[in-house]
From TrEMBL:
The record marks 170 as: Transition state stabilizer. GO terms for molecular function: fructose-2,6-bisphosphate 2-phosphatase activity. Keywords: Hydrolase. SMART domains: PGAM (SM00855). The lineage of its organism: Bacteria, Bacillati, Bacillota, Bacilli, Lactobacillales. This is Histidine phosphatase family protein.
Amino acid sequence: MTIRLYLVRHGETPMNAARQLQGITDAALTAKGRAAADRLGELLRPVPFAKVFTSDRGRTIETAHRIIAGHQPQPPLIQLSALREYYFGGLEGDSGNAVITRTIRQFGVAAAFRAWRGSERFAGLVRSIREADPTHQAEDLPDLIARAHQAFTQVIAQSPDSSDILVVSHGMLLSALIYQLAPEDLPFMLLKNTSVTRVDITEKQWQVRGVNLTRERDILALRGSATSTAHDAASDQSQK
């Protein structure tokens, strides 16, 4: 059994363009976001997605529909609320740069950069956001990780064996999964809009095959590696 998850962060929204913390607040895609989703759909058109999973936010649903627009037959699209973005609490709508400044003022430069460095930087980032939230409502790290685990447990349970699955979700939620599998692979600024990360799941392991890919040649190479992986899995199965 090999399930190949193509994890995509949604296309750009006006709040993304303004560098605001969006969280559970919803918005439509910008023209740039729509164009990027359409282009990604062209690159991924040969991938025979068996199913598509999104959060229940419009920006992920629109991105997914644009990616699979050229697929025939159209794979079923399933919305999971557990795939929603991280909740920033009272910081939703704030400038990301303002939150960084507030954290540095509150804890000092040295403490802030220690928290954001190394393989634990994602955990440090989430803790910093929660501590900077004046309402104390921002999601904490254990809850975010538990929700990511719940979401992908649901995805795997509903996915056929030896299939390609598209998951369109959000930057922090997808980063929470990558943090558990390969924390050193997470980029410092986390995931870009319409970036592709692939995770291959077998009976023995979850393997990260590429993270935060946006360049055409990288996505095409990733798509090509899926063909060889599927061939190897079929060969292994035929020998049993």
